[in-house]
Amino acid sequence: MKKLAIIGSGDLGRLIAHHAIQDNQFQVVGFFDDYAKPGSSINNIKILGKILDLEKFYMKDVFDVVICGIGYKHLDFRENLFIQLEDKLDFANLIHSSCYADASCNFGKGIFMLPGSVLDHNVTIENNVVLNVSTTIAHDSLIGAHSFISQNVAIAGFVTIGKRCNIGINSTIIDNINITDDVQTGGGTVVIEDLIKKGLYVGNPSRFIR
Question: Band of the pLDDT at 171, cuts 50, 70, 90?
């Protein structure tokens, strides 16, 4: 079993740790967090150091793989951190055993896929993406790097979602839709046409807010 380190000890980092342990996929050795005291513990998991300490601990074989636990409010930071580290550290994919992903699916690195999600034929998930509980993605769709897909989101076939997007809980996206980078949808948003301008969309059908 590989030794996993988690960047960030907040809500998302703790959730990753929980599922990694409960699903018996990784040995969680600790968190790296700039806002927590090294040597302290959260849920019996140690704070090993700051983010700048990652490479040093990796070279000492303290951990084998790493995953980002920085949440959806800091997508730019998630992206920058991943880009800085992707050639230096080995990023893990944590895909819960209750999920279904067709054998034709394509996965990047650093993906966290929570319980009950379903990915159909030829779905592509790029680097550093979070798919929350019961996400459903139909055939031939793509989720861009560093994006966050919330609970119970339904994405139809031939959909392309850009980078750093935050798709809100219970959003529905019909087939053949293109969503540009840096789009956020509010809870329950229904997307029936391309979203070509970055920003926040809400409602049924979706409308641009800001």
Answer: very high
pLDDT in tens, 52-83: 999 999 999 999 999 999 999 999 999 999 99
| Helix (H), strand (E) at residue 105 | none
Q: Which two tokens stand for residue 158?
A: 């031939």
Angstrom CA distances, 68 to 46, 115, 127, stand at: 16, 18, 11
Are the beta carbons of 92 and 65 closer than 8 angstroms?
Answer: yes
Say if pTM beats, i.e. exceeds, 0.70: yes
In angstroms and rounded to an integer, the radius of gyration of the C-alpha atoms of the chain is 17
Q: Are 93 and 109 in contact (CB under 8 A)?
A: yes
Rounded Cα–Cα distance for residues 94 and 112 (Å): 5
Residue with tokens 């054998």: 103
Using alpha carbons, select from 89, 91, 49 the residue that is nearest to residue 68: 91
Residue closest to 51 by CA, chosen among 38, 65, 62: 38
Q: Does domain 94-203 have CATH number 2.160.10.10?
A: yes
CATH superfamily of this structure's domain 3-85: NAD(P)-binding Rossmann-like Domain (3.40.50.720)
Amino acid in the structure at residue 61 = D
